[in-house]
Amino acid sequence: MHSYKSAGGSAAEDLFIDLFCDTFGGEKGGYLYSQYPFYDIYQDSRFADFVLDNGGRRVAIEIDDAASHNKAIISKDKFHDDMLKQNSMVHLGWDVYSWAVWQLQNEPDRVKDELRVFLGNHPLFKEIQDYLPKQRGKSLDGSNLKLKEHQKAALEALKAMRDVHETIALLHHATGTGKTVTAVMDAKSLGGRVLFVAHTHELVIQASNTFQKLWKSAPVGLYVERTKEPEEHVVCASIQSVALNLDEFRDDEFDYLIIDEAHHASAETYQKVLAHFRPKFILGLTATPERSDDNDILEIFQNVAHKLDIKTAVEVGELVPIRCIRIHTNIDLTKVRINSFLYKSRELESKIFVPERNALIVATWLDYVKGRKTVVFCASVKHANEIATLFKENGINAIAVSGEMKGSERKEQLAKYENGDIQVLCACDLLNEGWDSPKTEVLFMARPTMSKVLYTQQLGRGMRTAEGKESLMVFDFVDNSGRYNMPYSVHRLFQLKDYRPGALAVASENQRVAEQNLYFRGEKPEAIIDYPVSATDYELVDIFNWQEEAEGMISQSEFVRRVSVQSETIDDYVRKGRIVPDLEVPMSEQRTYKYFREETVEKYAEEYGWTIISDDNRKDLFMDMCRTMDMSYSYKPVLIKAILQHADDKGRVKLADIVEYFRGFYESRRIRGLIVEKKRSIYAKGGYTDKDVERNILINPFKRFEDMQMLRHTKTLGIVEVDSAVWKRLTQEEKEELELICDKKLQEYFDRIVKNIRGMH
């Protein structure tokens, strides 16, 4: 861990999260996982400062102190150790980005610009799900059967798999034996929306024809090259088109995903698609491979496709049911400031590091679960040591474990816990990536956290099945908090309003119904007879979750991108109450996130006569703006001409090239004895610098295009970029039309100036 970190976090972490949330929105902060555990290539335990899952691969973010990579300041061993850590992340297939603390403090705009470039303007962040079991699945081999027999057998086998909640399969049929027909008939039997993906245009068209013949009631659309029909019930697509446009599809868009020629699934494009979508069932099609390849392909499918969710995993017996007891404390967190999903570390420490709360944790264990194998999740190394010391003072063999321990020592202590020599583990992190203990019967959630990812991963550490283990008992230590800084708990995570101490919170339907019948009779379930809780105790839980409320809403920054009006107008209307947000989330006295429902944006757009902008119409609006551009000066068409001349294939232009084009355009007019511009213009006066030109471009012609999200300026990189939804859709004919429009506008503009001058004489 870097030297600037404290046990419970750091000011640098807080500052990075602030910048991240400013860049992508407060609701996206919850996808950041801080202090993520992993192993380096020597199997030593490490922690990444932050980790994101973008749906295709893991992204690690490191915050370095001033000395981290300066060999003149730090020791040679420390320098090489830091390099080994980052190289190991790259070896794991992660993208790794680093920023220095001084950059966060002194160059926040540069950091935000770089975040947008490195992580995308519309990132598809995902929750990290290492704690869940793999999707269940199997391979079906029908290559040696006759056509009708093997199709029937395959369809029956697929149905049988779904009956036991299996979610993924690989269908082996020799070439020419009707794999696609089998897939279509299976998808038709389920009836939901289907995405069929193949790697060639010909395979996509063939599949489309098969769906149309065999499932006549389902509209079939293509998503390949320039043909985009994503709204149809069945979409037959090329892998390239889907992989390049994942941001246009919700992850739950389709119920059934078919991957043709599945032996290509190891390719990154396929892995991105498999990781993005969350269908109810995935079917891979392939001609019968060698048996050794069989396992490889299915393993790829299971690794990159989404894991089982907790409820389904409990339902099918992969994980044990969860029981819960809520222990209320008198600790007040209402004044602790938050950072989207984290409490400000020092403020949190001052509140929860009190003897009374620590004593309550130990007393609860002695009263309720003495003798049961327990992991207590603590807020820091210091907190874990304090709790472990209290347990020892009460005669309980407990140990504090953390990432600060040497790997060999951690391994030794964890082995003692597994063997029963240690009864209680006090942990301030997840111990190791993938670490869990099937014998653990009890979890104490003594660390308040607003991170859904962190809470769920802690929960997953105790949910593995073991012989004689009926359920996992979770103790949530419930501190007083406000609605917007409420920590996670079992009931908040699973949106459960009804609470009975010790009752099943997550279980199969049969288990829940059977237990509910006992409560109706005033009896306690056998599993909690030993716990000192009443069978009649009952309370309602406030499960309000602002992140989930905001997830389906539009942030104020997104509102600006959605309508044909400048950002200052939106700011002014919100300030004056002419626009009222549907949700306001106070982060601090100075910072509030504002969110709007889709229908609210539409209502205000209609009320104030604004056009709703989307990726579908952004290019057309751009063309219309150029055709009808009003011109106080000649700058807009000159800007468009500069971009058309210098843009790369992604629509990016160096600002320096635009400056050079502007200078060349106006100086050329001066040399030819033509009117350069109006007298007030810097170009008419002459004697201007490149900095003057740059400032003029960004203030005048650029601003309007920027507000409508058609152009974007990454100032620290000196890049102007045409929005991808505009640039990708512009045809060569339209680019040529833009050139003609700009030339015509310029001719009309300068003719008008000449006419006005003559009129004055």
Automatic annotation (TrEMBL):
InterPro entries xrefs: Helicase/UvrB_N (IPR006935), Helicase_ATP-bd (IPR014001), Helicase_C-like (IPR001650), Helicase_Restrict-Modif_Enz (IPR050742), P-loop_NTPase (IPR027417)
Source superkingdom: Bacteria
Pfam families the UniProt entry points to: Helicase_C (PF00271), ResIII (PF04851)
Record protein name field: Type III restriction protein res subunit
The Helicase ATP-binding domain, residue ranges: 160-307
PROSITE patterns: HELICASE_ATP_BIND_1, HELICASE_CTER
A GO cellular-component term linked to this record: cytosol
PANTHER family referenced in this protein's UniProt entry, alphabetically: ATP-DEPENDENT HELICASE IRC3-RELATED, TYPE I RESTRICTION ENZYME ECOKI R PROTEIN
GO molecular function: ATP binding; DNA binding; hydrolase activity
Signal peptide: none
Residue ranges of every copy of the Helicase C-terminal domain listed in the record: 361-519
